Amino acid sequence: MSPQSSTTAKRFAWWAPKTQQRLLAAVAGASLLMVTACSGEAPASTPSAVGEAPKVFTVGTSASVSTLDPNKAVDQAQLQILNLIGGTLTVFNQDYSAVNPGLATSWQVSPDGLTYTFQIASGQKFSDGSALTAKDVAATLDWVINDKGSWNAGMVAHWASAKQTGESTVELKLRDPQESVLSLLADPEIGTIMPASKLGDEKFYVKPISAGPYMLASFDPTNGNADLVLNPNWTGAVPAVPEIKFVYIQDSSTRGVQLKGGAIDLAENIPPNTLSQFSGDVEGSVTPAFGGNFLIPNDKKGILTDPKIRQAVSMVIDRQQISDVIWAGQAKPLYQFWPNTSKLSHPVLPTTVDVEGAKALLAGTKCANGCELKFSFMPGQQSTEDLAALLTEDLAKIGITFTAQRVEGGEMGTLQSDFGFDFISSGLYDYVDRADILLAQGVQSDGGTNALFSGYKSAEMDALIAKAISATGEERISLMQQINELFAKDMPLIPLVDWAFVNAKNTKTSQWVTFEPTGWLRVATKS
Hints:
It is a single chain. 25% of the residues lie in helices and 24% in strands. By secondary structure, the protein is an alpha+beta fold. The strands form 5 sheets. Strands 1-18-15-19-14-4-13-12-11 form a 9-stranded mixed sheet, with helices on both faces. Strands 3-2-21-20 form a 4-stranded antiparallel sheet, covered by helices on one side. Strand 9 and strand 10 form a beta hairpin. The longest helix has 18 residues, at 473-490.
C-alpha cells in the first residue's frame, strides 16, 4: 500500500504503521459512498453521517507523492487520491467480498477463463467534460499490460492483450486463468481509466483526469500536497464533502499536534504506542489488514546474499517484543509470509527466539566472528526509530552490530535502485484477502518492485507463483503453502508483525470521510 523506513508504499508502506479503524456512523443523515473508482453506481447502502458536513476535509499524510501515474502508484496517499478521482470498470461492494459494475455495465467470461468481454456504459465523460469511450478503456488496459516499467507488472503478468471489439465493447485476453481479474480491475492502480491520448505522458500525471466523484484542483509534485474538488461530470451520488486536501507532514508527532489543533482532520501513520494520547474530539484506532511488516535484507549484493545470515537474523528477532513495544499489542507477531489475517495463514518459522540456533547458522559465514549491518531509514517516524533500537539489542546477541542510518528521500531512492543498503523496512498489504499482490510485489522477481526492493530472484519461486495464481481450489491452497515453505527456506524478507493501519482522527468530521480497511477513504453522499 510506498522503502524508506518511514514513508509508505502502496501495498508496501514504509515502517510507519498506518492504521485507523473503519468508522461508520449509525445515525440518520447522509448515506456513505464507497468512492473507489466507479461510474454512477454506489455500492450497497451504508451507515450515515449526521449534522453539517465539513466544507473541507484535510488528510495529513506521511509520504510525499511525486506522481499520480497509476503504474507508479505504491504509496498510500497516491492510492487514496487515485481512488477518489478514478473511474474503474468494476467497484468493490460494501464489504469487499465481490465486485459490482462500474464503468462497465456488464461482462462475460469465456468458459476457459481466458477472455473477458466488457460492455462499457455510454454517455460517460472524463472530469474535463471529454467523452470516455471503449477506446479509452482498451488503451488503458493495454498500457497497464505493456508498460514494462510498471511497479504493478506482476499483478497483470497473466494478461495478454486488450482491444476494442465494438463501439461499446472491450475484450481482455489472458495467457492463463486468474480468478482475481475482476477485483484487480477495481484497484485504483490497475483499473483507473484515463484518456487514450494521454497515457504514458509524464506531464499528464501531474494533473491527471479520470471519471471518479472528485477531480484534481491542484497537485504539487515537489511536496505531495493535493487539493481535490467535486467532479461536475460525475453522474453518481454527490459526495457531501466538496473538497478534500492531502497535506504532507513528515513528522508523526507534528501530524498529531496538527490534528489536535484542528489544522487537519485525519493524521495517518501514527505510532501505535502513542494512541493513548488522543482523547475527546480526537481519537486513534488500529485496523488489521491483509499484509505484514518486513525487515528487508539486500538479497542481491553484500553479506546478506547468504540465506544463512538472513535466517540467523530472523531467529534472534523478538517479534513479540516488537508487537508489545511498538504496536502496543495491536499487531500480531508474524512467523510466515502470509498475514495472520489471511485464510492462507500457516506459520512456518520458529515462534521462540533461538540465540544458539542463530549462532550455529552463522558458523562459516562472513558474520561468524561478528559483522556490521546497517539499517537505512528516513527520519520523522518514531516507530522506525523504536524498531531500530529493538533490533540493535536483538542482533547484538549473535555478535552483529546493527547500525541505524538515517537518510533523506533522494538518498534512500539511490540506495534502493543501486542496492546500496544492508537492511530497510517496509509494510506490504493488499486490499482484500487475495494472494496476487502480496506475491507479485513481495517475492516475485519480475513483479515490478524487485521483490519488495530486496533483489530476491528465484526461478523456483517464480514458477510456483505462476502456477498458484492460475490454480483454484485445493490445488491453489497447496501451492500457496509451498510458496510459504520456500519463503521460510530462502528468507528473502524477514517478517516482523502483521500489517495494520494506525491513524488518529477528528471524531466529528470523520463521520463524513471515513478511513477504510483498504486504506481508501469513504465519503458520505448528499441525502
